[in-house]
Fold this protein.
Amino acid sequence: MFQRPPTAFINTKIFGKFLKGLDDAVFENMAKYLNFTPNFLSVSDTYDYGYRLFDRFVGALGDVVYKRTNIAGNVFGLILISPIILGRFKNNGEVIKFIDNYFSNQQMVNVLIPNSSASRNINIFLRFLHRELNKSYVINVKDPQSKGFLCFINNLNQINLNHKQIFPILNGEYIIFYDTKNFNPSKIMEKIVDKIWKQFNILKFVLISCGYYFQSPALNINFSKRSNLKLTYNLHGENVKFTIFEREPTALYGKTQIHTGENLKISGGFGGLDGMVLNNLVQYLNFTLIIQPPSDGFGYGWKSSNGEFFGSLGDIVYKNSQISINGRFLMSYKTDEIEFTHFIRSDELCVIVPKAKKIPQWLMMFHCFSAITWIIIIITFLISWFTWYFLRSQKRDVIVAFIETFSLMISIPLKLRKKISERIFLIGCLGFNVIMVGIFQGSLVTSFSVVSYYSDINSLIDLEKSDLPISTSLDVFRNDTKLMINLSKRTVLSNYNSSMERAAYYGDVAAVERRDDAELLMKTVYLNDDGSPRLHIVGDCPTVNYLVYIVPKGSPYLPAFNLAINHFWEAGLLDKWYNDAIDFMIMYSVYNKNFKINDELAFNMGDVQTAFYILIFGLFVSFLIFIFEIITKTEKSK
């Protein structure tokens, strides 16, 4: 314990009385409460509170770390010991070797020297580097092909005033030489490292001064071996801003039952694919998550005609966030101020059209065969009719030949003929009848048990013929073919929610949506009362794209994000998280909707109405003919 007024006076008297501070009073009452005799020891060195000095601890902190005392009696602020790694070079040769190893991936290194830092010693040092190392050094000229930077400063204010010059890109690799003779590494240098790390978001840097080096908390460099610069991807609780907004099914808020056993509080309550990627990034990289929705509430965002950016895209372009964690297509967003992460999935952009209408039950029997098949059957019947007319051995009658041929076609037996030609014809008609009637009856059974629809729009050619306007905010028809140009002319600007709803409930537009999302919406949202879908996905999808996240250009966190996402992808977790959300939403939808499913087995009048229509038609025609025959016979009798 050491004297530190006003909290620790340690046997100091004024006017004959001992002064007591907070620390004195606490120890006096602690000794009474626990019944022990305190043995006050002074700090073993001259560093009072103490701190971490290179690879050892000094002061009261060192006495506690090395167990020379049971407790440090002075009040300490509640702080974390800095994760900065400190060490010392034995000679200039080790410095040169370290620089060579550090920039092993760079063929050329940029040397940054603020005007006030220029000195004869720096020039001598650079000439020494040129002679010792096979590497080019460009002074105060930024080579766009190199991310290596060697910086020289001799004044701490230069970091604040010239930080954009000293750190021109966030994802660069920096060695910073601090040229000073009055050097206290325990205090000043840790402040510099903390400022570079937290305020300027530089992850790859080493600070060197007076032979000592200070390593970024995100680095893990083995100085004794020749190895490439490697990040530990441990951000030590650094605050990282994420932009995310709720979007089904990839970013679901508050659905804790989706991912069993996962703590969604880590990701701010978000689940689904994007939510789980966020959840595991926080744990994998050890940072403090700061979630913010798009600053203007416009979701994905866009670039306006005057060059202004909106939504989460704008937050990334203007560097208000480190990453937009809602997956979007890997495509041009009309800016060079963003970069893309490793892809998370691939998906197609498809055209969604209204589902074709159901075929009325009374028309089902006519849809057992295609139109061409019906025409061939009719032509076959006409040929058989006239053939039978000329083969009949009895008196030739067109009407009788028609009735007999029709009877053969519908399995009504006829009297066996004596002529061999007639018998062979009857055998052929019988074989044709057995096959066609069997197919017809089987098709009728299928039509009663399966809901049938008119032909859907299954290709982009069908879509062009349909004349449906295409409602979308995306440029999906990029090909220069005549078909794509015609479809592109029919697009109208809209958002995907309104266009999907209009296509489902009004049927007067076509929408554009991701295939995976469209399939989910068709199973959970856009359904008829009996559970059948209201929409249909056109088979020919105009484009296929990867889904990615976006970060600001030059983001120092991009390598860390990419490594983590790549591990998730290789482990199959991305597909698992997506399928978990899909399965949950489908089960939730089925559980909460009461579909009117007809489970009756008996046929109703709707099923057999065609038979009654045929019977009524036959009775009506026969009645007319009967009246006509009566009138004709009456006139003849006169």
